[in-house]
Each structure stands twice: as structure tokens, then as C-alpha cells.
């Protein structure tokens, strides 16, 4: 808005107000007097422009975006810790119990035993928040001595750890709230309720899916992948506490629809087939995320465009998607995910 308010523009405008019979050349007293003031005014306009952008949700970010969304009762979702299933065995591969509070390490992360699920099975919580706690699996090493312990394993995800909500997702939730008002348990409200659970990346609502009073909510995780059972259960439990009386709500995960792509590519100088394959896989994943729950098919032409736009690809031929040359249809609850990527030269 204030792009024209440059140092030269402001200074010249100030000098224009000085009578013509006074020396206004660079180095003159009046010039040297006005120049610092003009510089300060330029800085003021820069800050005014920043403040103007921070005042609107679409151009704001960080703390200031939170201030804007809080006006509508929407707060940033905090990072959460992953909870995993821990399996513990003694001699002879016999399950054994461990003390609550016992700590174990795997790779660079530590987990602590919170509670017992069954004989030799425990809830293990990562000591740091975020998605990192979802990644490792396999053998754990005890930090604290546990009598009789021979082997410990980190297994299934019980509750996914989530990173702090990004500005992008917070803005999306805010815009959904503003642009698609939710009232009396309409479909927009069910979608908003699903988004209030940390880790839910999107949701699709099917009113009256199994007759009067029934609602189905299909969710995916933050990476637009099928949601794990813990996330599904957490979402279902929350919606049960806020749904209208009499509504019969089912919450399920989206079903993965794998997208296999095969093509012959012409490589640019300095690029390897592996680097091009990695770049295309990342770009394809972004495209598939962008169409989750928004379209009824995966575009064959769009995948060709994504391939041609991949750095290192000069041209391509023999492109097939799921072994065919046509668009790939998506069922109502299907989520497109990258499958086998096979590029050749």
C-alpha cells in the first residue's frame, strides 16, 4: 500500500515545500536537515505496511494470526506427545511386567511407561512432543534397570504425536469457520469438530449416510494419509461429546488409493534418474494431498504436468497411471497416496 513512499519521494516532497530562493541542493543545510527526517518516515511507512498485513488473517502469521483467530474462538493446537505400545519379555520370550515410570531409549528418543495394557504390554509416551515420536520402532534399550528384562520393543502407535499447528492449518480452520458457518449440527459443523482434533488433516462428512439421523465422518491425518485407529477413536470420542442429541455418528479413516506411475523420461544434463525420481515422488505426493476429498478422480494429464515440471525432466513418454492411460476414479472415502514410482530412460 505504501510502496511509493520511498526515501527519494518523501525527501523531494519535503524539499518542494521549501521556498525556491533557499539552497536545496544535496549537502545544503536544508537538505541535510530534512534527509534524516525522510529516512525515519520511510521506516514508519514500512512498519505501517507490516502492521496492515498483520491485521488481516490472510496475510498475518505467528502470534498475530493467533490474535485474529481467537476473536472467533479458534486457538492454535499445541504439540502433543506420541503414545506407543511397548512389549517387554523376559527369558524364554515370556512377557514380563515393568515398573510404571521406567524409561527406555530408541534411536535418539526416550519413552516412559505410563500404564499397563496387558501382561508385558505398556503405554509408552515419548518424552518430547511432535511427530518424531511416531517414527521409530523396534528394540528399545532400558535407561533404568529392570530386573529380569531380556528384550523390549516399541510397537504400535496408540496416539499419534503431533507438531504444533502450522499457520497454514490454523488459517484454514479460521477460514472454514468464517466462510462455511456451522449451525445446529450441519455438515460444516461436523467437519469443524473433526478439525479441532490435533492430527486431523481433513475430513469429509456424509449426512444421512445410513438413514435418518446418521452421519459418517471420514478423516485423514495431518499428512493427508489414512488416519490410524487412535486418531479415529479420539475424533469419534470428541464428536460424541458435542453432537446434537439423537445423532448416530460414525467416524472412520479414509481408505488408501495407491497411485502407481510409470514413464520413460529424458534427463537434463547433470541429473540422475534417482534424483529425478525423488523429486517427482515429492511433487506427486503434494499433488495428491491437494486433491484429497476435493475431487472424484486423479487427473492423468495433471500427473503428466507434474512429471514435466520436475527439475531434470526435459520430456517424457509412455506415461501410465495404475497401468492405464486414463484418469483414476476415486470412491467417496478413498484417499490418493503415492504407490510404486517407476521411471526409466
Helix content: 25-40%
- The average pLDDT is 93
User: What is the helix tally?
Assistant: 8
Query: What is the gyration radius calculated from CA atoms?
Result: 29 Å
N-end to C-end Cα span = 50 Å
The poorly predicted ranges are none
Structural class label: alpha+beta
Overall 3D geometry?
extended
Widest sheet: strand order? 1-4-3-2-5-6
- Describe the main β-sheet briefly: 6 strands, antiparallel, barrel
Tell me the strand percentage band. Answer: 25-35%
- Secondary-structure element sequence? HHHEEEEEEHHEEHEEHEHEEE
What number of structural domains do the residues give? 4
Could you give the count of β-strands? 14
Molecular structure report:
The protein is an alpha+beta fold and 345 residues long. It folds into 4 domains: 7-70, no CATH class; 83-159, no CATH class; 183-253, GMP Synthetase, Chain A, domain 3, CATH 3.30.300; 256-344. 31% of the residues lie in helices and 29% in strands. The chain contains 8 helices and 14 strands. Strand 2 (103-106) and strand 3 form a beta hairpin.
